[in-house]
Amino acid sequence: MQTVQSNARLNQTRWALSILLAAVLAACGGGGGSDDSGNGGNTGGNDGGTTEPVDDGTNQNDDYAAGSRQKSAFDAINVARKAAGLEPLLQNTRIDAAAQAHAQYQTINDTTGHAEVQGNNGFTGNNSFYRVQAQGYEPAETNESISYTQYPNITGAQLAVEWALASVYHRSSFLSSHYINVGIGDSDYPASSTLGYSHNIVVNFARPSNQSAPFIPSENAGKGSVIWPVDGASNVPLALSNETPRPVPDVAYPGHPISFAVDRSLSNGGTNTLTVNNFILSCNGVPVITRLLTSANDANMSEGALANWAFLVPVEWLPANSTCSVVFKGSATSGATYDKTWSFQTGSTTYAGT
């Protein structure tokens, strides 16, 4: 496991500052972050000799309490994944424990972020990989997303997922085919907190070391794809959620991103890189000026193991109550080719959940 842990430490450094705390989301009552920990190219297999116990904490049917923040976030995640054609994530109580411990670490120490400082109250590990492992779950890789909100109870949990799906780097975690399990924790900040949030919501994604990464469901194995917004989606928000690092830092009011993704790994364990030949967005028949982001031109995507993703980010908010059409043509290292056209409807809401 040492190799995976070393890679986890490197990835933690890259993503530790991916905290959605920009002014607009903070004003709307929230934010979030993403921490990619683990061996991004690992397609499974037990590399440390540790045998996963029969009871690894996975529940085929979740047991989150009705009306809880965890239940709200869990359901919202899997509703989105189902719409995208992905398998649902399975609750894992050990990952729940890791997420809950980190949620409480932040409120105990009145702080935010993915990292923990050894010696502080509530310390359980300096990144999500170690925290999940400390609870008895042996991960091949983990990823963590954190939201901070002023919205009460389940409202903030559902909006946290909506904010992530309206972003670039965070969307890739929620709609990844690479993860199998999820754990969710939350904790209330004390009244004396100086941060301005009522509570946080921590979502940990993981895949156990004894399971290979699943492929995107498809009639042709290894040739599946994930698009977002999905074909026929309605009430799509107009703007990109504020996130750090900012995907297009020189654009003042970027629009809702469009994405196309394929399987991240090849059957032989190599990286499956997506090549874009054509990626066009138009709304009401008028071409939309966009920025194309791939691992070839975006350092954050390259470092975050997102070679299998491509994003179109409009340089302005999308027009409200409009029909938008997308054309994508490309290929992947796997040899698969893609030629897809789809459409969606925007709503009147600028930012997700507002």
UniProtKB/TrEMBL annotation:
The signal peptide annotation in the UniProt record is 1-27
Superkingdom of the organism of origin: Bacteria
Q: Where is the composition biased (Gly residues)?
A: 33-48
Map out region (Disordered) in residue numbers. Answer: 33-65
Signal as a keyword?
yes
Provide this UniProt record's keywords sorted from A to Z. Signal
**Span of domain SCP:** 74-203
Taken from the record, one Pfam family name reads CAP
Q: Does the keyword Nuclease apply?
A: no
PANTHER family hit by this protein: SCP DOMAIN-CONTAINING PROTEIN (PTHR31157)
Q: What is this protein called?
A: CAP domain-containing protein
- This protein's species is Corticibacter populi
